[in-house]
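Dear colleague,

Thank you for sharing your sequence with our group. We've completed the structure prediction you requested, and as agreed, I am returning the results in plain text so they can be pasted directly into your records. Please verify that the sequence below matches your submission; if there's any discrepancy, let me know and we will rerun it promptly.
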Amino acid sequence: MKRATSAVFVCSLTLFFLLVGCVGRDKEKARDQKQPPEPSPLEKKEQVIVTPEVRQQVENLLAPARQRELTDPEKENLLSAFVELGKPGVACLIEELKKEDLGTRGVVIETLGGLRDATAVKALAEQLKQRREDVRRAAVKALGEIGEIETASALVAALKADKKKRVRAEAATSLGLLRAKQAVIPLIQALDPATERKRWVRRSAAEALGLIGDSQAEEPLMNALNDKEKVVRVAAMFGLYKLGDTKKLALLEERAKDSDEEVREWAVRELGFVGAAQSVAVLAEAMKDTSIAVRLAAGKALGKIHGPEPLDILIAGLQEQDAAVRAAIVQSLSGRGVPPVGEGSQKLFDALAELIKNEPVESVRKKAKALYDLIKPTLPPQPITSPPEKTTPSPSSGEATAAKPKDTATETPGNQK
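Please find the predicted structure tokens below.
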């Protein structure tokens, strides 16, 4: 009897603990279900402390933009200043977008795009609702520069619905930079002249489809080779090359020698996107083109091709007469980084030193100086040669003894006889 009672007691106790364990697990599961999901990387916020000093500094930096449109060098200087400010500067720029003042909105958006900080994405996407075309265009460009794929839906909406061609074209370009697969069908529609009349949008759509690299775009791009607009046909060649049609590179190189200046410019630009070393000779010829626009495109394109040959061409291009082309060449050289020792670094260093000494445009001079300062520590120290010892020359036979030096302190042009 006692054994039976003990057995019943043990069984009851075991069932009790099992029941408690089940209830505990159910409660834990319920708690897990009630917890909010992990936020996406774009929603996660870092705690950024913005001091009154930083706010004042930002206000001082934006003061010129409140009064007038900034020049390109001024915008570059503004971007550099915000790079130094870091996260607090980004936070202040995002707050600036919430103000009613539209005077600075465009330059603030451009600066945020240049900073490429993902925390600005939501604020930039809101700018697509603004009435001003330049603001919307700057916003779609900035979203492409930041490179967060989550913004693709907003960019597709701009590509489809915005009434301004420049905004649609910039949206297409940004979608290409994002490699957004979900944008392939909208971009194919934007490439079709039956649905998109503006050539700049069709051109950007062709480039974007090439960058995304989806096979669905092959037939539409082949059709675009017959587009009535030359720049669209050139862009279609680039798109097909990126899809694997290597024969189209030869066509692009031919277009870089076209009699039409605009075709040459855009063909050189597309060759830069391709970045093929075999096109260096064609781009070298483009650096001598009579058109500033073509030389500008060539200077940018050569910066995207690695190797000593394009480096030599760019170094020679620092003698360019046009300041915009010189600026593009310095930018290309900066983008390539510091050449390895013995592979043109000393030659580039010397060329930059000469440019800094003679360059009349401050923004170009500053860019050159920044690259100069990067290269300098990488160069081997110059050998120090000791000065020759002073020796008193003895007059040789038949040679007159050196005359005694004149007293230059007392002899002047006025008292010379």
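Summary note from our side: Confidence is low (pLDDT under 50) at residues 27-43, 394-417.

Kind regards,
the structure core
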